[in-house]
Structures are given as structure tokens and as C-alpha cells.
Write a structure and sequence with these properties.
Elements lengths: L2 H16 L28 H13 L2 H8 L3 H12 L16 H5 L6 H13 L14 E8 L6 E7 L5 E2 L3 E6 L8 E4 L4 E2 L4 E5 L11 H6 L2 E2 L11 E6 L5 E5 L14 E5 L18 E4 L20
Helix pairs in contact: 2-6
């Protein structure tokens, strides 16, 4: 073989090695990752959708992942190989099922494209289990206020369960600056909150003219001492006080976002599903719509509907 022929053969082999196994399907590169910040658009799943994805990749056979779900064949093969262990057989002692999304993210050729495909499949096939309210209360941050001045800071919490909730069992947690767990926590209130009703927490009912605004002052039911001091990059969680378990949250506790995204704004809930996984990627637009910092039109009123967020 001549030198030129050898060079052409090597180029051809290299091209084949880099081309996707399924040329008609979009595919990720071997090192692509969907959990990285720069891949944020590849991850818009809440905790329940993440559970459905993990159940799918842990249970589905290769043909289902490849042909029905529509993954690139390399991604499907690598998922099954990891899950079934060295012997290549499911249901044996060396199986290594996926415990979380990070473990799935480490699989070669599973990146934003594969994740979007899995997410679309579990949504389209109704594989996402709705939140159960039998064992724990469902509480949502239904509105968040971070306005001008020192005291225009408030939160509205909705009882989204089918039974009354004892407020004294729950609290509002503030994760300040670079902290990764609750910096301050204050009780949500006292008494029972009826299904579909809201409770309002604020920094203070006092203050000066319009700080807090007259609407916040009038509707506030519980002063969240030391907690309602958020400044736009602090994370806010509802927690079960006895266990510390998150019930809902604004932001990911361990990640301080840049550029103060929640400053000078009113956020209104548009998604009905609580956010309970503190390690999951968080996108505000999957849970809230943004409004002017002085727009208190709906503050203190139970949301009429939580039918989903604009996409």
C-alpha cells in the first residue's frame, strides 16, 4: 500500500469511529454531560421526573431503550452494560443499578440529547408518579417577594394537599450566601392551614412608609424573624422542622447563583409539583413566572390554577 493510500485509509477509519451509530438520530459525544451548568438546557426535570427516568433506565431492556425510547444505540448499550454488571445478565449479584442522575450522567454518550429523550419519554408515557399526600403534607412556595427597601420581603405558602396542615410542624429556611444548608429557620406559623389555603410570612409588619408596602403589611400573618432577609441570591426552603426534610424550595441549597436572579422581583408559582430534591439542577422558569417587584395583585390569594409554566 502506498503512503497516500495508507493516509486515506486512516482518515476514513477515523471518520467512521467518530460518526454516530444512528446517523438519523441526534446523539451526544462520549464525554457530553447534562448536569454541568453549561448544559443546563438539557436538564429540566423535577425530583419525580428524575425518579421516573432512573426507573426507566434500571428496568428497560436494550431494545426498549434503543428502539422505543429512541436513544442513540451507543448510549443504550452503555446504560445496559453498566446496569447489568460484568456478567451482562440482569438480576444477578453484580448488577449496578443507577442510584441518581449523576451516575447516569457519567455514562459515555449520555448527555443533554439522551437526557432530553428520556425526559420526553417518561412525560409522554405518563411514567411520572404524582406526589403523594398520604404520608406528608404538600406545601408550595406559591409567591415570593423581594422588593425595594429593607422590609419588602415576603413569601406566600399554599397547602396543596387534600388535608389540613399543622403549620407549627413546618418552617421557612434561608440558605445565605455560600452556605449549603439552612443558615436561619423560622416557624411557618400556628394552627391548621386548610387545603387550598395560603399563609403569608414577611420580614416585619412594622417599618416605615411603604417599607413594607401597605399590602404586605396588611396581609402578613407570620413574621419570619431572621429569615425573610433574602437579597436575591439566597435560597429559600420549606422544611419539616422535626426531620429537616425539604418540602419545597426556591433554588438549589448548595449552589449560590450569580447576578442576584431573585432580586427586585415577584415570583408566582406556575407548576404544581413541589421541589424536594436539594441536589437536583434547578431552573426558576420551570416553577415560577416573573413579575414587577411591586405587583402584589395576587399576593395573599390562593392560586386559581397551577396548570404548568410557559415553555
Amino acid at each position: 500500500m502506498t503512503r497516500n493510500a495508507l493516509a486515506l485509509a486512516l482518515i476514513a477509519l477515523s471518520s467512521c469511529a467518530e460518526s454516530p451509530a444512528d446517523p438519523d438520530r441526534p446523539a451526544d459525544g462520549a464525554e457530553d454531560a447534562f448536569l454541568l451548568a453549561e448544559k443546563a438546557d438539557g436538564l429540566a426535570a423535577d425530583a419525580f421526573e428524575a425518579e421516573a427516568i432512573l426507573a426507566l433506565v434500571n428496568d428497560a431492556d436494550l431494545a426498549t431503550l434503543d428502539d422505543e425510547v429512541g436513544l442513540d444505540s451507543r448510549a443504550a448499550e452503555n446504560i445496559v452494560a453498566h446496569r447489568d454488571g460484568p456478567d451482562g445478565r440482569p438480576g444477578t449479584s453484580d448488577d449496578d443499578p443507577f442510584d441518581d442522575l449523576a451516575e447516569l450522567d457519567a455514562i459515555p454518550y449520555v448527555g443533554p440529547t439522551a437526557f432530553a429523550t428520556l425526559l420526553r419519554y417518561v412525560r409522554d408515557h405518563d411514567l411520572v408518579a404524582p406526589p403523594s399526600h398520604d404520608d406528608a403534607a404538600c406545601l408550595l412556595i406559591s409567591e415570593y417577594v423581594e422588593g425595594s427597601g429593607n422590609y419588602n420581603k415576603a413569601i406566600e405558602v399554599l397547602n396543596c394537599s387534600g388535608a389540613p396542615v399543622e403549620l407549627s410542624e413546618y418552617g421557612v429556611c434561608l440558605v445565605r450566601n455560600d452556605d449549603r444548608a439552612c443558615t436561619f429557620t423560622a416557624p411557618l406559623g400556628q394552627g391548621l392551614l386548610a387545603p387550598g389555603a395560603v399563609v403569608i410570612g414577611c420580614r416585619s409588619k412594622g417599618g416605615t412608609f411603604n417599607d413594607p408596602h401597605v399590602t404586605l403589611r396588611a396581609r402578613c400573618q407570620t413574621e419570619l424573624v431572621g429569615v425573610a432577609t433574602w437579597n436575591g441570591d439566597d435560597r429559600v426552603m420549606l422544611v419539616h422542622l422535626a426531620t429537616g426534610q425539604p418540602v419545597d424550595m426556591l433554588g438549589r441549597p448548595g449552589y449560590r447563583p450569580p447576578n442576584f436572579p431573585w432580586a427586585d422581583v415577584v415570583l408566582r408559582r406556575c407548576a404544581a409539583r413541589p421541589v424536594t430534591d436539594p441536589s437536583a439542577f434547578y431552573r426558576e422558569e420551570d416553577h415560577f413566572t416573573r413579575h414587577a417587584r411591586s405587583d402584589f395583585t395576587d399576593f395573599g390569594k390562593p392560586p386559581a390554577a397551577l396548570s404548568g409554566c410557559p415553555r
